[in-house]
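During the reporting period the student researcher (J.K.) took over the structure-prediction task from the postdoctoral fellow and processed the backlog of single-chain submissions. One of the processed entries is reproduced below for the supervisory committee.
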Amino acid sequence: MTLINKDILQKFATKFAAKIDNLFARKTDIPTSLPAKGGDAATVNGHTVQTNVPSGAVFTDTKTWGGITGKPSTFPPSAHTHGNADITDLDAAKLTGTINTARLPAISATSVPWTGITNKPSTFPPSAHTHTFSQISDLEECTDADIDAIIAGTFV
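J.K. obtained the following structure tokens:
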């Protein structure tokens, strides 16, 4: 038979008791009653009733179909479309893709601000000027026969 040292046994018992206390609740730590309705308390997870949480709020994971408001009368809702008059707050920045130009309204400008005109001359009216043949980039060659046809009105 092996003898056990009393001091070693006491140290083991103390460590074992501490380990048990960390793993399990003592009987005296367990509440003997619960609040009514499973938790109608002055605060719920740090939110104050009637301040952040409406009075009479039910904390449950389920809700009856009859208790849901704003739902469609049929499910799934029937396919439908909306006309232009139904769109009241379109954000043009959300539009992507290509717009059929036939669907764009016809617009005409009766006046355009001078700052809105691009590629305008630096002075207005521009000064009278001429260009040499070398300054014309898309000049086509014309033969004597082309000139005769132009004069005769038969040039095609």
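The committee noted the following: The first strand starts at residue 43 and ends at 44.
J.K. will present the remaining backlog at the next meeting.
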